[in-house]
Every structure is written in C-alpha cells, then in structure tokens.
Amino acid sequence: MTGNPARRVSQHRTAQSPDAYTAKHDTLHLVYCETTEDVLAAIQREKQIKGWTRRRKLDLIEEMNPDWKDFAEGW
C-alpha cells in the first residue's frame, strides 16, 4: 500500500537494500494495482490478497492485465 506509486516503484527498481524482498524476488514491474481513498479498506484488501494462494493472485492479475503490461513503464 502506498500513497505515492511512482516513488514506491522507484524504490522497488533500485532495491535500496541488498537483502530487500525486491532484490531477492526481482519484483520490478507493476502489473496490478487497485485504488481507494479509504486507508482502512486498502489495508484490509492488502491483507486479504496476501492471504491468497499464488495461483489466485496470478488469476487476479490475468483477469485485469492479461498481457502483463507494466503500468509504471515510462514513469
């Protein structure tokens, strides 16, 4: 969850710590996102998705972004 997606993507892409999750898992592309003005709803949704299986998460991405386009390309 972030209030500044461009900054967060930049943090992922620069892997600011060598032991960071992003450095270990090569998470460099933004292929799925949701928006809301309700912080509590965002936290609840993030926890819900984190509890899902990998397959269910992949299905969610495929449903919204079947070509796996990087939404942050060009930021």
Write a structural description.
By secondary structure, the chain is mostly helical. The chain has one domain. 51% of the residues lie in helices and 0% in strands. The protein contains four helices and no strands. The radius of gyration is 13 Å and the shape is globular.
Q: Distance between termini?
A: 18 Å
Give the DSSP E fraction (strand runs of 2 or more residues).
under 5%
Indicate the structural class. mainly alpha
Unreliable runs: none
Largest sheet: none
Average pLDDT for all residues: 89
Number of helices: 4
Order of helices and strands: HHHH
The overall strand count is 0
Radius of gyration: 13 Å
Percent of residues in helices comes to: 40-55%
Number of domains: 1
- Using the alpha-carbon principal axes, give the shape: globular
SSE blueprint and pairings:
Elements: H1 5-14, H2 21-25, H3 39-50, H4 54-64
Quick structural summary:
With 75 residues, the protein is an all-alpha fold. It is 51% helix and 0% strand.
Which features characterize this protein?
single chain; 75 residues; mainly alpha
